[in-house]
Amino acid sequence: MDRDSGPRVRVPEQRAPEKPGTADALRFTVLGPVRAWRGSELLSSGSPQQRALLAALLLREGRTATASELIDAFWGEDPPSQALATIRTYASRLRKILGQDTLVSESGGYAIRTDRGALDLTLAQDLSAEAEKARAAGDRCQARTLINKVLGLWDGEALASVPGPYADNQRTRLEEWRLQLTETRLDLDLEVGCHAEAVSELTALTAAHPLRERLRELLMVALYRSGRQAEALAVYADTRRLLAEELGVDPRPELAQLQQRILRADEELARPADEPAPAPAPLKPAQLPATVPDFTGRSAFVSELGGRLATAEGSVMAVSAVAGIGGVGKTTLAVHVAHQARRHFPDGQLYVDLQGAGARAAEPETVLGSFLRALGTADSAIPDTLDERAALYRSTLDGRRVLILLDNAHDAAQIRPLLPGTPGCAALVTSRVRMVDLAGAHLVDLDVMSPEEALQLFTRIVGDERVGAEREAALDVVAACGFLPLAIRIAASRLAARRTWTVSVLAAKLADERRRLDELQAGDLAVKATFELGYGQLEPAQARAFRLLGLADGPDISLAAAAALLNLDPHAAEDLLEALVDTSLVESAAPGRYRYHDLVRLYARACAERDEEPVERESALSRLLDFYLATAAGVYALERPGDRLADHREPTQYSGLTFADRHSAQDWLYTEANSLLACVRQSSGPGAVRRAVDLLWATKDLAESGANSKQYEAAAITMRDLARSSDDARAEGRALITLTNARLVAGRFDQAERDAQRAMRLARAVDDPLPSCWAPNDLGIIALYQNRHAEGEAYLEQAIANFRADGNRPGEASALCNLSRIHLAMGNTTSAVALAQQGIDIYDELGHALRGANGRYALGLALTQSGRFADATEQLHDALAVFRDSRQRLWEGMATFRLAEVDLAAGLPAQAATKSEQALAILRGIGGEWRRGNVLTVLGRALSEIGQPGRAQVCWREALDIYETLGSAEIESVRKLLVPTLPG
User: Fold this and answer.
1) Sign of CA dihedral 565, 567, 570, 576
2) What is the pTM of this model?
3) 3-class secondary structure for 951-980?
4) 482 DSSP assignment
5) Contact 533/506 with Cβ under 8 angstroms?
6) pLDDT per position as a tens digit, 479-495
7) Do 125 and 180 meet the contact criterion of CB atoms below 8 Å apart?
8) Radius of gyration of the CA atoms of the chain, in A
9) In what order do the strands lie in the sheet with 65-66?
10) Quick one: which of 918, 962, 965 has its CA closest to 942?
């Protein structure tokens, strides 16, 4: 039997068809082994011949089969002399199992009488018919779901092990139907944007069915839509060659036409041929924030902007930009107008806060990714670059009527990629600056409210009764607010929440402010004075919390972290934070998480600089750093029992959180990742740098996750520079090791080597055991990747000695596993297996789940080269499960790649091609180009072995380009693969 038995489609677990009614109803399956159930009990169906009779009767779906028909089904043209008696014997046995009412004798033959839903085949037929109806109605998602259910009813080969010519014919028919369903499902995958996911399955299917042109056509489309045009064209070349050699024919016209469309880079090919029917909810975003119920005035602006947005229904794409100082009500006006205009944009409304007034404005490519997902684009279909995302965004909006509200923009350059490009859509922009360089935009300058509007807004919040009794005081309040809507709202909200205050009390408080709002000029000063109104009305403890929390750089802060920063217990901290939320000075980002509006954060910091002593500001940030370090070190210890970081890290004065298990610890780490790294970057004060570097060390997993790799590397560079400028050799050495780790993940080995070499020199100078151990370990890994095996062996033996001297058993295990890979590269497979096993034994003894997976990864490599493919697969599968569970996307992708290598070595090229494609998808954006080149090389070898040499050449050429750019040692081996095979 061919060991490479073709693709395995991922479908739900096969189950017996469920029949409504009694729990002991009979159910049958033929889409796999022929089986019968009574309720949950599996019935014995007897010998293969007896199952053949059961199958023949079931496939007639209640119609009677005569004795002669059954004899033909069993034996064809050469039945035995006792054929009829044999049939009767089998029928009698089945009747005893199924019951007389189920298997009936009729007109000299037999039939099985049962409900239609009792047989998996009829259930599959009904679901397939429903799928066809859904697709005809334009509901592709429902059709795809239904076909997946149909395919999920198969459990291997239909009529498995059933003998006879009739069973053979039916098996062939059912397998063809299964393939047709798979083709339909894959076609739907492409139509809903899942082309990247479809490539690996189509690669395997084309290997198993090389002459099936429809599969080749789908593969070409999937590759083209994944940005792999050269491979798509290579599939056509491989197909044409194969058809000529095997059948002496050319590809069908549809395939040739597809090739031409790809050559022309046909834009229409990048999306479904037909527009979908009414789209599901995710394709019609409704992202507008709620409009305020007490919106007041601005009638002229509402009319002006509403009229502009209405013109988007015609022949132009409307863009309106609202500018004004902070607090003037730009967002409130824009949201109100957008809600009124919703009827003009039936295909949805998009919204984003571009954070233009802060230090880190939102990146356009990040916003485009969010918008594309909201419009129904699958993550795998979202390109990497800004230009590609912007082009796909405009294409997705083409023909739709969508309103885009771009709030708090930094400048015109930030929003240009976010503008729709076709009539029917409109963009409404708010910004603190006038968008004079935004071509074609309708500019609106928003000024403060008129006194009448300001008083009306104040009255709506405070109430007619209180304002009517003190109208003059109310006018004094809104005048003191400078008629700025945000200032009025803050002042009125504070008054509304304090029933014992009169309007005159509030007016007197505002009159005492050091900066009078009627003296304001345009710019930040107006915003600062506006917030001064709310800040001045805070209780002392609330004001302190407001000031100190604004010092933290992260995008938001958890309740536990805020409690640490404020040096309060969590309950007291929560009371203060919720009070600040009530005043609109702080926002509740999610339960237990808080954030500042960017302008409010700037104001809070100004208050801290003005009202807090430097030592108190430093102490607050120091407590926050302590909290993050203590908590992260606990997470690190859970992941790496026995590691010496706990003994060598800087001490902390503030304790952290504890976790019951590694999963809850991981949840905390990845939830806090952005805030942790922000805390690291801003820790430049005396005594903070060393703790910040240790925090980076304790959060190494973030570098390997993929989601936070770039931010982690940026933080490591910051800390290296800070340590170097402060002449702290110990901190610099440790920072360099974290930076080495980040650059190893990114595949930048030359940079990583320079960092590790300097870290080792610094560690020796200051006798720091952490980098003294890990620097040679990392240098050994780098030497392995660069084929400097003897040098790598020396580094790793040094690392093992240093780890042992420090009593760091997990580190020793890591170096042993890395040394295993060096021995493997040098051809010493026996010692490679032994070294990896030594490392695993240490990890298992200490209870290391994640690092134990790294050991099993190394053992899997050694077993592969030893020819023990089944054992290698088992080890790598075990490692893959842990990597996936631990959110280590780099190692998940690499383990998948290594499984592809095992399949290739074991003579299973179709499976190897599938896993290589999966590895490419997982490693997208992480791991660096060198690792991508390795995967492409193996993918090319697998494709070559399954009869797709043209596509293989494309993969090898891309790999060669990567290696030549990097100057890698693999250049010559790939060049040899690219030498054309000469005919013998």
Assistant:
1) negative
2) 0.61
3) HHHHHHHHHHHHHHHHCCCCHHHHHHHHCC
4) T
5) no
6) 877 677 877 877 787 77
7) no
8) 35
9) 65-66, 109-112, 103-106
10) 918
